[in-house]
Design a protein that fits this description.
The structure is a homodimer.
Chain A (H helix, E strand, L loop, with lengths): L1 E2 L4 E3 L7 E7 L2 E4 L9 E5 L4 E2 L12 E4 L3 E7 H10 L1 H27 L2 H18 L7 E3 L4 H8 L3 H13 L3 E4 L2 E4 L2 H8 L13
Antiparallel strand pairs in A: 1-8, 2-7, 3-6, 3-8, 4-5, 4-7, 9-11, 10-11
Helix pairs in contact in A: 1-2, 3-6, 4-5
Chain B binds a DNA duplex through helix 5.
Chain lengths: ~210, ~210
Amino acid sequence: MKKPAGTVIIEEGDRPDDVLLLISGWAYRYKILPDGSRPIMAYLVPGDLCDIHIFILETMDHGIALLSDAEIVSIPKERMLETMRARPRVAEALWWATLVDEAVLREWLVNMGHRSAYERIAHLFCELWLRLSEVGEVMDHSFHAPLTQEQLGDTMGLTPVHVNRTLQRMRADGLITFEGKYLTIRDIDTLRDIAAFEPNYLHLKRRG
Amino acid sequence: MKKPAGTVIIEEGDRPDDVLLLISGWAYRYKILPDGSRPIMAYLVPGDLCDIHIFILETMDHGIALLSDAEIVSIPKERMLETMRARPRVAEALWWATLVDEAVLREWLVNMGHRSAYERIAHLFCELWLRLSEVGEVMDHSFHAPLTQEQLGDTMGLTPVHVNRTLQRMRADGLITFEGKYLTIRDIDTLRDIAAFEPNYLHLKRRG
DNA sequence: CGATAGTTTGATATCCTTCAAAACCTGTGG
DNA sequence: CCACAGGTTTTGAAGGATATCAAACTATCG
């Protein structure tokens, strides 16, 4: 099923009945704070599954919305459970996905707390580059990144103004270009160094 | 098995063969960055299980160490798997625990990125107060919190100096006392307000 | 082609860090 | 029971990173 950018897929407090699989496009997990700010806690990219929560937890503690036009497939809870029962490998894959999500959250937490704006953004770009490479979305050092500078700020705990100035510096340093929602990584090696990027947390080499 | 404060239980890169259950005392998840800093990404309190990772993921992407003297029980991987197979309720409980860990990480991420030092610490104290209440470790608005101000800083992405000044302000405001590793919450209501603390992410009301 | 969202710019304010040193605990050995 | 040692907390002064506010500029899309 196709949905336009901005669509809210699940809201905080919901008790959804389906698991959603993102086929194309990007989504993000968010909360809304009393002061109106809208922190972003994760990006979902093609191939990602939104919310195994629904089997176990009462309600969503956050929302999920689309960053770009996207194609999603909705899998009924019941079918999901059957499959998991019948095919342990599928159940294991779900465990795997959940544990990796957790690992990414831990790394993002480190990122927020212990790195400067410049390093933080560099780290995010390294991660996106790797994750998107895995699903074949990187062409020629570039990928589609449907993010505004404000959303980048909501993700990194920075003002849009400061994100802007930081991106300018990155461009000036010859590390990236970011035009028309396309991000080009011009120097992944220095980007990695700056961010002290250690990809082990993505657990990319999946077990036999 | 009893272990003294400071013991490293699992290190980054390890591939442990047991799941560990924390009976008494506190532990914490940490990473070590190239610059030598040591971010803390989670606290484990009595009743918490360390690392279901081991069934699925290759290696630990972080370490776990003890904040205080602690008693831990080590459960062999094999026994754990058998139990999960034989008793679906246990497997479900493990899912539940993992998903709650994830929810806590998301909330911590929001905390780091979108709240001031004062609010952040207030939020942490609210969370600890609730989690420890659940396991009967809160007596008379007080609980044992074996944390130095430096560790608090590593957790919140703050300098020990600033943690110190912030705690002083909290004391002056009559919200807490924190002496001899005992934290007393003197005014939970204002603390909650300051932190905009919304406990839903802890998913305390477990499903029937 | 105009409206609206997004980006860029400048000036000023604030929170938090850094560095350095003093004061205070806590436990240990004599 | 005292004295000392190491870790922890506290204090002060000064600097830096990021926020805030406000406005201009520039894409984008119907």
